[in-house]
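User: Before I run my own analysis I want an independent prediction to cross-check against. Here's the chain; please return only the structure tokens and, at the end, one sentence I can use as a sanity check.
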Amino acid sequence: MAVNPLMLDLPESFESRRLLIRAPLWGDGAKVNEAVAESIDRLQLWMPWAQALPAVEESEADIRRARIQFLERKDMRLQLLSKETGMLVGCSGLHRIDWDSRKFEIGYWVRTSCEGQGFITEAAEAITNFAVRELQASRVEIRCDSRNTRSARVAERLGFTLEGILRNDARAVDGSLRDTMVFAKVRGVEFSPEGD
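Assistant: Structure tokens:
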């Protein structure tokens, strides 16, 4: 049966052990801009949107667009905030949403000062559980450049299955053709319909 995603009453925030994971809010632009500025050298390696440092106003406009898309259920960006300090640790979310098949893709990045502390693994696990329980996901994917070993390790640690490597799938930020690793968890195999 077709679903009208606008009619879904969804929580706008949830928690993991160390993180408050929530939808973007008006005013988040400065926090995001600060994290991007700190991490721009790392982000430029993998993220097409991070090839130039945006102005704070541009970051706020981007957050406002992300808020609207979240409310429309077209894309569900999520802010990752430390419960202890309130600092923006990074961003994640559910992207490339297909409501008919209930398929979602998790994307993520972490600010440089928070690397290597397990925040992204923790967030991706909580977001996967959110997708299963709240969105009745049938499939959750993590896709990454085959050279991005840190991103691939997150998927592996969480028990996502490497379904394949798409050769010459897209242009990398350096202009070369990249191979894309496709990891997934699917209902009835890696998770139950109830999300247990």
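Sanity check: The radius of gyration is 16 Å.
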